[in-house]
Each structure stands twice: as C-alpha cells, then as structure tokens.
Amino acid sequence: MKKIISAALCATMLLGTAALTSCDSYKKTPSDFKLPYSDYNLADYVTLGEYKGLEYTEIDTTVTSDQIDAKIKELLSDYTTEELITDRGAQYGDTLSIKYTGFVDGEQLENGSGSDTITLGSSGYIDGFDAGLVGVKAEETTTLHLTFPDPYPNNTDLSGKAVEFIVRVNSIRGASDIDLTDEFIAGLEKEEYTTVDGLRAYAEKLALEDNKESARDKAVSELWNKVMNSCTFTSVPEKEVSDYADNMMSQYKAYADNYSLTMEEFCEQMMGMDYDTFSSQVKAYAEANIKQEIVLMSIVNAEKLRLTDKEYDAGMEKIAEQQSTTVGQLESNYDFEILWKSIMWDKILDFIVDNGKPVAAGCRDHHVCRYDRGRYSCVRIRYR
Question: pTM for the whole thing?
Fold first, then answer.
C-alpha cells in the first residue's frame, strides 16, 4: 500500500541523483495500490549487478544535408505524387521494394533473407543498411558489408559480428519534384515556416530531434543489456511466468478464432511452426519479460523511486499520443498497474542513462574520453 510521504521525508528522499527540494504530489497513485511484486522477496530471485555509472557509446547526432532533404520530402509529401523512378539511384525518402539475403562467416543467416518494402532512411534495419542503398538503381543488386550492433538484442549470438547482405532493388518510388520557391512555401500557410530557408531550418530541427531520439534509444538498448547481463538470477516466479504466458496464448487464441482456425492450424499457417514449438517460444518470451520486470522492481525498491503526479500525467499524455487515444480512455481500458509499469519503465531507463557515462565511439586501450563544448572526443594517451 502506498504510504503517505511526510514533509520531513519529502525533503530528503532521493530521486535519481538529486535530492528533492520540495514536496512532490503523489495523489494520482491510488491509496490501495500495491507495488508490483511486493508479495515477493525479489532477492530470492535476482541479485542486482551494476546499473549506475555504466559506459555507453555516444552517438553523433549531427544532421546531414541528406537528412534535411529527406525531412523536407516528408513535410511536403501531401503536395507531391509518388511516381516510379527509373532514371536515377535511390535517395533518402524513396520507397524501395527489395529482396535480400544475409550471410555470416560465409553461411546464410537463419531468418536473414526475404523481401520487403522500405522507406530509405527509416527502414529500421541495422546501421549502414539504408546508407548502402543510396545511389543504387532499380533492378540493380549490391552487396553491403556491415556489422551487427554490440549488443544486438534481437539475437545476442550475432552481436558485433560482420554480416554481408546481398540486396536487389526491385523498384524505386519517389516523390515528384517540387519547384521550391518562397511563393510556393508561403502559399502553404504553415505557422512553422513561410520561406524556403525557414522550411530547411524547421526540417533540420526535426531531423535533429529524430537523431537525438535514435541516439537515446541506442543508449537505452546498450545500457539495459549491460544491466541485465550483470544480474545473477537464481530462479523466476513461476506463477508470474505462467500468468504472462497464459495471457499471451489467450490473445493468440482470439486471433485464431477470428480466422476460424484451431490453435494448431494457427501456429502452422500463421507462425510457421507446430503448436509445441510455439508454446515453448511463448514461455521463453514470458520468462525473459518477467526477469526484466523483477530487475525493474529491484531497482525501483533500491532507489525508492515512485511516480509523482507530474510524471504520471506526462507519461499518460505520451502513451495517449502514441496510441491515438485519450488519457480518459486509457484509464478506463487498462488497470492502473499496467499504466504504472509502462511509465515507470521510462523513468528507470531515463535514470540509467542519466547515471551512465557516455564514451566516444572507437575509444580503445590507452585512450581517454575528453569532454569539451558539449561533446565527448577520444584522445590517445602518449607515453614517454
């Protein structure tokens, strides 16, 4: 049950690394709300490792002219028509139909081949994939020599490994050209920009926000993997794993019913595996998620973190925007605990990043990172 925080406690409680200087309000948290896993002694299941002071790779967020051009295309997409491109290579913002096959150590990657339709610059593939397709023309094939991120959460066995993708660009579709003039831009009647220069400045601002968000996402991924890998698990709460897996299977059962399929038929036709294999994967997924949740709650307990009303309101607004709904509808459709967990996840991840140490990419032994004018750089130590 949530305790009422006295004025004395409020003055000394630590949130993150800074002490509160005034009392925060916690009225949005129901008085009878029990913290998740409060019925468990989490120390029986996990021993926390390091989660503060961890190093992560600092990503350069400098905006390139190509990114600005791609953002301008996005901003003006309602005023253009998409047409088949045959007289030039692919550019950022183009829609590409591709077929690809991946190889690691000369062996074809399992689940590493297929066909896809991507928007160049925001495909979601690993770093270098999109850049490697810039300039490639329709019906051409190219080979991309890339490296999987380290860590690579989607498949830890591939973390840091070199990969070769053979990619065929089947077709390219791009926006028709617009004669950008101040007169044309003024006619759009946009508050954010009224001239070509204003449009480019606004596009650069948005591209920078995208870069910063991408850099944070990569920092979060890198740091959270380090946090999880530093933990020692003795077991997991089996009831929580079972409940999580049962809930997932119930949702898949509803999907199967929508297609008038049995679960066995659904697994074979929709998931490409038999029922037993699918059930095993669901259980493994559930166990992995419960492990993350008990680590989350162990950090919450260790740092005595709670959600203030301000944090709750901001988190709810963010979720509502992401799901194109209202805060009221969210509160009606979901239990408070589910919403609380979602918002607390973000708070914990912010906490870990804020307490992390950014390191310039490429720093090696006999190098140190120097902070100057808002950026980190790698400096070699010279020995005499």
Answer: 0.71
